[in-house]
Specification:
Elements (H helix, E strand, L loop, with lengths): L6 H9 L3 H23 L3 H14 L10 H19 L27 H10 L4 H12 L4 H8 L6 H17 L5
């Protein structure tokens, strides 16, 4: 069966009380949302994916007319992640400055398929979280300028700089061995 109903109409039907539409929307976006959370929170991933979907069900007024449901889901996932990290952290939390590796135990990268992927995932956890999210959404999920601007809540003109800064920080970590 080909599912040609768009995400926006599925979300509208789900909000109107159709659980089948909600299940279809969930099934479409569960894997990307799981990837989003997996390298950041490990065993809390399932709960945060469900929390994200619930927040989207209840937050209808936040979906912009010029935005896709996919973008809206990642925007909501980012907010859910930040709230989760704030609840589990003592003191201030600035995702522009703080890397996951600084927040305490970080999720395992054992699920990585090879050493190169594990090295990349570990390095991502050592750059500021906002840079990590920017790079993962750009390279792994294929979000581009306008979509990233919505998710990151920045002007579209700021997106290329965010990508460049994050990539430079990541490259420096990968190219410089620890302790060197």
């Amino acid at each position: 069966m080909v599912d040609d109903e768009d995400d926006r109409s599925l979300l509208e039907r789900w909000r109107a009380g159709d659980p089948v539409a909600g299940e279809r929307l969930f099934n479409r976006h569960e894997r990307p949302l799981t990837r989003f959370f997996l390298n950041k929170v490990g065993h809390h991933t399932v709960d945060l994916v469900q929390h994200t979907m619930s927040a989207c069900l209840c937050g209808g007024d936040r979906l912009r007319d010029d935005s896709s449901v996919r973008t809206y889901l990642f925007q909501t996932a980012r907010e859910v992640l930040y709230e989760h990290l704030r609840r589990h952290r003592d003191g201030p939390f600035d995702p522009q400055e703080v890397a996951l590796a600084e927040l305490g135990p970080i999720p395992s990268t054992a699920y990585a398929e090879d050493l190169q992927q594990r090295t990349l995932l570990e390095a991502l956890q050592r750059i500021p979280l906002e840079d990590q999210i920017t790079l993962e959404l750009y390279f792994m999920e294929g979000l581009r300028g306008p979509e990233l601007a919505v998710v990151l809540d920045v002007p579209e003109a700021a997106v290329p700089r965010r990508i460049r800064v994050g990539r430079d920080r990541l490259r420096a970590l990968i190219e410089t061995p620890e302790g060197a």
